[in-house]
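## tool: complex_structure
## caller: assistant
## args:
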Amino acid sequence: MASVFLKIDSLTKNFGSFTALRDISLEVFEGEFVCFLGPSGCGKTTLLRAIAGLDIQTQGRVEQAGQDISVLPPSERDFGIVFQSYALFPNLSVNKNVAYGLESRRSKREEVDQRVSELLALVDLADQGKKYPSQLSGGQQQRVALARALATSPGLLLLDEPLSALDAKVRAHLRQEIKRLQKRLAVTTIMVTHDQEEALTMADRIVVMNHGVIEQIGTPEQIYATPASAFVAEFIGTMNFVSALATGSGTFTHAGGSLDVSADGLKESGQVRLAIRPEDIYLSQGTDTPRLNQVVGEVTAAEYLGAFVRISLAPEGWESTLQVDASTDRAAALGIKVGAPAYVELPPEKILVYPEAV
Amino acid sequence: MAVTPSSLSATVRPLKPKASADDHVMRLFILMIGLYLVIALALPLYAMFSKSVFDSEGAFVGLSNYLEYFRTPALVYSIQNSLFIGVITTVITVSVAFVLAYGFTRSRMPGKPIFKTITMIPILMPSLLPGIALIYLFGRQGVVKWMLFGHDVYGPIGIIISEVFFTLPHALIIIVTALSIADARLYEAATALRAGPVRIFFTVTLPGVRYGLISAAFVVFTLAVTDFGAPKVIGGSFNVLATDIYKQVIGQQNFQMGAVVSVVLLIPAALAFFVDRLVQKKQVALLSARAVALEPKPNKRFDMIMMVYAIIVSIFILGILGMCQFAALFKFFPYNLSLSLKNYQFDLMDGGGWDSYFNSIEMATYAAVFGTIIVFYGAYLVEKGKGLGVIRGAFQFLAMLPMAVPGLVLGLAYIFFFNAPSNPLNVLYHTMTILVISTIVHFYTVAHLTASTALKQMDAQFESVAASLKQPFYRTFLRVTVPVCTPAILDISIYLFVNAMTTVSAVVFLYSPHTTLASVAVLNMDDAGDIAPAAAMGMMIFYTAAGVKILHYLLSRGIEARTQAWRISSAN
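## result:
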């Protein structure tokens, strides 16, 4: 296990009477890629700015490489930063932008030039050095910003929604490129994003935030498969929810009937929310002898999404429709069409249980 | 009060961020420029307010000066007169400017650039000059005196014509801006809904520019009420507040009463200023919406009507300008109309001679150079500095304040503050330095707003990036901020130079025999009856200001060409 590089301890940030961050504690390991993920206004950018020293927290401690940096100004910290707006100096060429942090460090001209071309090669822009930022595409500009941030070999790389201003294709490409670069340089990286796909594909660990608190910290697999709260379950991917009442021994009744849930780790009682992902629901052949957790309902919509079909099911008595993913072939084989009934099974081990929101 | 957990945690002291070396330097500088504004603006104004509640012996008399003022009918009449001039000028100027601005933005009249240039001419002239032209045009021996049908140009008529001339470009700039942010999609939607042109005008056009119109009205009103040049030259026995201050101070040496009138004059100006600020905020909200620019479609008849209108306004402006020039060149109006340069022999007249012209150039150059540095750097520190929140707020207030202070009031306040024997700064009195200091402060607000706007348009993260790269702030300031803001910096310096050349109101109380200025010379020569030389000197000011403007235009073009590579599309 790598050592702890960045340690955040009981960090709170108030803006007047508004609490943007409440008692945040977090550890980031050396060389790790961590994503702060959450809806806008959840405090993820505020946390990043506190780590950078751009907006210092009201309370709490930040430690980087064993040193207490809680109250230090940005210029006395060790980080590189890339913003959504790129923030490239418009009047300086790409070369000069990348060299900006190198020049005054008493380094020789040739060394600076050498380092700049090295960095530009690293981000695949070796021949663009003489251009001005406005002459480059958005994706290229963002790579220049990345090269500039990495030029001084900072211990920590901060990325503030770096891909949000780009269009989908460039975004997907740059996602891989940043990840590859990060692995290669092994620089500890924190990225803020509201895009779950970005977080799931890039991060070693994801910090899911909401309303100024951390909802869950975990690997992408953990976050997706075992969301720690209903919020995380709803925010990441698609999730079906059913309000239900625990009746003991793993059985829950709800408006449309009852469902059995594997007792594994079951703690909740009383009013709960049951959750299951569309791809975990099994589209089955209809039988008259009801199987465990079998549900029948009319198909109200079937969205063709290429490899699979997303089916909306309206079981009788249920408070909302059920989303079910099935491979295109299987849906065709079972003759799924809008208006006709369909049978599904909800495997007990795939059903998650959350306390009813108050 | 019950102790809740939240109020408990509020008692825990928040972390105190450590200030970087940059922060300390920036704080030092903002305190220095702030100190300048305190000494050159706040303290003099305070001195003036306190003077208004003391008698000539220096004893505190409360409001008795004010009571005396309101018991003197001649003085109180001036309030009425000033308001009358202000309201009539506002109505005429805003109407004239609106139609013209409409033509500039919504028609495809030929010759637009020429008309736009002509309508900006009044900005380059001291406000005394149109009055002189009017004397030649409509005075006792005026060349087109018949046009007034026997009315006397000396008095409200002359003042109002002068003020309309003088305020037109100011109103025009604001209304053109308001009209040009119109969203073409609104017009398309209205047309698609089958609204006729009249209905579109009242439901789309007018509501879109209402803030611009209000803003223009207040700017014009303030300028007209506080202007001193026009009523001085052509007001005759029609007294207004601005001339009262001058008469009380220069004529009767009654400083207390001058202070009282100044305070009275501050009221409408300050009121107009605050309403304008309020309206401006709403205008900004309108601006930020993404709009599709409106391209006027050709319409022969409408375009012709608009062009004829623009020609009429241009004749008015060029007529006054031309009359000034001829007034300066006629040998002895109206008896000998042959042309000569004898009126340019300023050294033979009172008013300081050619020296005053060169003093003006010197003063305007200093004001432009130092003013631009102070204003731009001050705005930068307010926008980008960290900490000292209260002081930055106070700074912002002081930077906005000069807009609400008429020049005469500022000048008088300077007499009270800098001429006080107990003030160690009184060594500045009667020097070039005090002229420069007062001029920079007098025109501080517009310059400051120009700088702030340019700085706000820059990416707010530049400083964060620079700090993360461990670069000192001044390096980013010099290598990025200043080059990116060069157009705004040029605008500020030209604005300060032109206004320093043309202004007469603040400096009229502050010049000395060694530091006479061209604009003051115009005033004094006119006062002494040397109207033709006054016109000649006024035209010298105009040519200088116009020359500098042309230089500015060429310089801007050059910079634009040189920086085109990075300025293009850097907005998106």
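## assistant note: The beta strands of chain B are 330-332, 336-339. Chain B touches chain A through 35 residues (CB under 8 Å). Handing back to user.
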